[in-house]
Task: inverse folding
């Protein structure tokens, strides 16, 4: 799917606001010893709604902005978020993602994927470090907070990008029939309303 | 409807290009010196984004305070019962009061530390507010709302009211990035007082409440509870520490002595609350080129 110019502007705006609010506000609010991270939520929402190309582009842009704004290793976050966005987008293209609770599972997977992959890159590039219990606890709390934010933020992003997200938008990129997805992203569970 | 080869190729090509660009950026960024093109681009981006970040940080402060207050309240046992019946207006007022009190406590810390006899002389402390934090879980860096326009330069030490916090790593006109002592790249020469045992403070990455004082000679008598301060060494060849002598770093909480190791490792609990600091002070030079000194006793 090729994004129209206005759609690309909306996606860019969502990414820009997500990064800005994350570094200026959300990162400074400790909750239960951890912090939410809006960026994986925004990238996951855009990828789930727009597909793999939108997800990869949104992930790359968000990561690059984060690296530039925070003086982090340039390219590290963009690499990880590109993969996160692309993989979630492919998941959306290959599966039927209509279930209302799916965003929670997708955001949890995206957040965990970002934390683990960015941690791995940090280890590979820089340091001998220990993964303390504190890090694992913070990851877990962040993952839970992001999961709580998933549904409202998905609704918000869907509202903003609705004009270019139409039913059956992924048909052109599927190689076969989409497989069914359960309420928490597990194929075949078949629970909940559809 | 199945995708044609062109669509698949296009999708893969764009994804590959984004990944390759990220890898190229990473490679060049690590390979170039601090004054290189990408580092300059990063400083430029920070210069552009800093007014927006500062504006957003200020505009959303009431919202942030309200959420922070909620988090503090939830985590404080018993406080919920007393506050449950309060109406929204009172909660807002309480949030504002608590935030102001916390700010005052932190700022009071700066006054106290400045009166301390060990406070490095020859510095002009610049107080700044933390406006952004790295969202990773490694507590590596924060951004402050003062920059080169306030006399801040790269490599200047940064403290909180409690002790050493880190050093300045990048500066724009209106902001600066602080690399914290919990960052993996940090190392600070320090001494355990009053024993005077020297060592290098390094982070136990991922745990900002635990720093390690490495390379401490085995014979040194160190006890838990003793204070660790920066040693501010100066060699005969002109090499000197970025950190002035005497800045409090933390308190000894555990000592690892192994029969096999040449040195002992000392675990330190940092004085600075790296996870919850709202204000910091950058120890800028009082005069250009001047360095911080500890007053002779």
Result:
């Amino acid at each position: 799917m090729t994004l129209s110019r206005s759609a690309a502007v909306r996606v860019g705006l969502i990414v820009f606001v997500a990064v800005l609010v994350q570094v200026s506000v959300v990162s400074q609010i400790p909750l239960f010893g951890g912090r939410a991270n809006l960026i994986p939520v925004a990238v996951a929402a855009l990828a789930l709604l727009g597909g793999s190309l939108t997800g990869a582009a949104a992930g790359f842009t968000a990561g690059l902005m984060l690296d530039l704004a925070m003086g982090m290793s340039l390219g590290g976050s963009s690499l990880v978020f590109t993969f996160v966005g692309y993989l979630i987008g492919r998941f959306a293209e290959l599966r039927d993602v209509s279930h209302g609770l799916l965003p929670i599972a997708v955001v949890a997977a995206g957040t965990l994927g970002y934390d683990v992959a960015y941690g791995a890159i940090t280890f590979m590039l820089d340091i001998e470090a220990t993964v303390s219990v504190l890090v694992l606890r913070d990851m877990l709390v962040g993952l839970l907070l992001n999961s709580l934010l998933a549904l409202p933020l998905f609704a918000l992003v869907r509202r903003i990008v609705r004009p270019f997200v139409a039913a059956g938008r992924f048909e052109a990129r599927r190689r076969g029939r989409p497989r069914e997805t359960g309420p928490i992203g597990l194929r075949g569970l078949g629970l909940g309303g559809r | 409807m199945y995708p044609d080869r062109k669509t698949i190729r296009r999708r893969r090509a764009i994804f590959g290009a984004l990944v390759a660009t990220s890898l190229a950026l990473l490679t060049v960024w690590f390979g170039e010196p601090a004054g290189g093109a990408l580092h300059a681009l990063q400083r430029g981006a920070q210069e552009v984004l800093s007014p927006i970040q500062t504006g957003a940080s200020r505009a959303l402060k009431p919202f942030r305070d309200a959420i922070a207050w909620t988090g503090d309240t939830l985590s404080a046992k018993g406080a919920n019962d007393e506050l449950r019946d309060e109406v929204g207006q009172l909660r807002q007022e309480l949030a504002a009061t608590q935030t102001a009190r916390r700010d005052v406590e932190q700022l009071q810390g700066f006054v106290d530390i400045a009166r301390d006899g060990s406070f490095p002389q020859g510095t002009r402390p610049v107080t700044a507010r933390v406006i952004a934090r790295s969202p990773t879980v490694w507590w590596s860096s924060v951004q402050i709302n003062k920059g080169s326009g306030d006399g801040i330069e790269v490599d200047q030490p940064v403290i909180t009211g409690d002790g050493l916090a880190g050093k300045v790593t990048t500066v724009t006109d209106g902001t600066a990035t602080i690399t914290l002592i919990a960052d993996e790249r940090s190392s600070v020469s320090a001494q355990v007082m009053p024993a005077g045992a020297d060592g290098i403070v390094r982070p136990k990455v991922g745990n900002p409440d635990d720093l390690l004082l490495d390379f401490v000679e085995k014979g040194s008598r160190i006890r838990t509870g003793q204070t660790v301060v920066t040693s501010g060494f100066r060699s005969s060849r002109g090499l000197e520490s970025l950190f002035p002598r005497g800045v409090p770093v933390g308190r000894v909480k555990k000592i690892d002595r192994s029969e096999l190791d040449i040195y002992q490792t000392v675990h330190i609990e940092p004085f600075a609350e790296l996870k919850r600091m709202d204000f910091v002070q950058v120890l800028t030079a009082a005069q250009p080129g001047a360095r911080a000194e500890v007053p002779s006793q």
Observations:
- Chain B has a mean pLDDT of 79.
- The helical segments of chain B are 5-31, 37-59, 61-75, 79-83, 88-115.
